[in-house]
Amino acid sequence: AVGRSYYRQRNLGKALKQFDHTVKHFADIAEDQFDFHNYCLRKSTLKAYVAMLRMQERLYSHKFYRRAAKDSIRIYVELFDMKARGETTTAEKQNGEDGEAEMSAAEKKKLKHAQKRKAKAEEDKKAATATAAGGKPKKVDDDPDGEKLLEKDPMEESTKLLKQLVLYADAAPATHILTYEVMSRQNKWLHCLQALLGLFELSNRDPLHYKLVTPLAHFCFVAQLEDAAIPAPVREVILSEIAPVLGGAGAQPFKSVSDLRAAASKVVDSVEQRLKSNKELPVVEVLNGLKCLKNAGRDCSKFLETWSPQGAIALKECNKLLKYLASEYGKESAAWGRFKTRCLEVFP
Predict the structure, then answer these.
(1) In which region does residue 327 sit, left (phi positive, over 0), alpha (psi from -120 to 50) or beta (all else)?
(2) Which of 224, 225, 165 is nearest to 195 (CA)?
(3) What does the alpha-carbon distance between residue 275 and residue 297 come to, in Å, rounded to a whole number?
(4) Residue among 86, 75, 100, 83 at smallest CA distance from 16
(5) Residue 320 Rama label (left phi>0; alpha psi -120 to 50; beta)
(6) Which residue windows are transmembrane per the record (predicted)?
(7) pTM for this model (two decimals)
(8) Which of 6, 9, 214, 260 shows a CA-CA span of 20 to 30 A to 150?
(9) C-alpha pair distances (Å), 93 with each of 90, 98, 107, 245, 341
(10) Domain ranges of the chain
(11) How far is 168 from 279, CA to CA, in rounded Å?
(12) Is 185 exposed, middle or buried (CB count within 10 Å of its CB: 0-12, 13-18, 19+)?
């Protein structure tokens, strides 16, 4: 809860710090089991031993671990996108660069001395509090704001967490969605295909399922599948394995990427038709439908001019849709204003 609170406040460093504490806690539990093996065998507590083994099997599928890992991955993906756009990832660096750019040489020198005095004061404070009562050493966190976590490679850290989720929480759709998000940014298209197939099975083999349509449209239209850098055998596997998803059971492998996109266009047509014809669609399905149409290169502005939510509305999904509309059309747009008004009516 604390980590998610920091995340909502856009304090990504402290949010990562809280999630990292949770992940390390579960890692400590897994590591401590080795001491328990010898204890149980020595004391012949077989019932407790079997219970411990069963607990270890489902340790990393615990909801608290899944929440911490998923939110950490989302932050790392966001950090990766920020770095790709050339944005700074820490407020401290942002303020430092902007402030120093406007300073004169004398002011910069004065600032440098002030920073040295501040650093020395912090070191003295740490030294004074390094020992608790009785002279015992006290552990001091040298990164309370999570700045060091922000400096790590986002994709490398995300992949570490994903490995555990794929192994122990593959029944959760979010695992496959996040796998696609991470692997698509690394151009690992076979991993993306594997994530789509897993999500397709969890969606009861329905290509129009709202959780599947967004990554599926991205894979078919945004991913550069015709790129010469992709080996021919990899492209052949993609054209073969994606065919049942787009064309149904027994579909023949596609001959080219153009054929794949032609079949994907029919799926997108169905998504667009459902958006326009079904006024009772829940907000979460509308959000994913809009993302799907965007990935397919279609304009949704006319639809949003007349759309008013009539189906199931949840506060969490409303916030997500407001954020999406603000990023795509701006908070000055009529679509954002109309939906904001509707949200205030439902959640006064």
Answers:
(1) alpha
(2) 165
(3) 16
(4) 75
(5) alpha
(6) none
(7) 0.82
(8) 214
(9) 6, 8, 18, 46, 37
(10) 1-86, 170-298, 313-347
(11) 38
(12) middle
Alpha-carbon span 193 to 101, nearest angstrom: 46
Distance CA 221, CA 180 (A): 14
Beta strands in 159-316 (DSSP E): none
Give the pair of three-digit tokens for residue 158. 């995300």
Residue 152 three-state SS:
coil
Residue 296 has φ and ψ, to the nearest 5°, of -85, 0
The CATH classification number of 1-86 equals 1.25.40.1010
Rounded mean pLDDT, 250-258? 90
- Rounded Cα distance between 207 and 298, Å, is 19
Span 312-325, pLDDT tens digits = 788 889 999 999 99
Dihedral sign computed on CA atoms, order 149, 3, 72, 323: negative
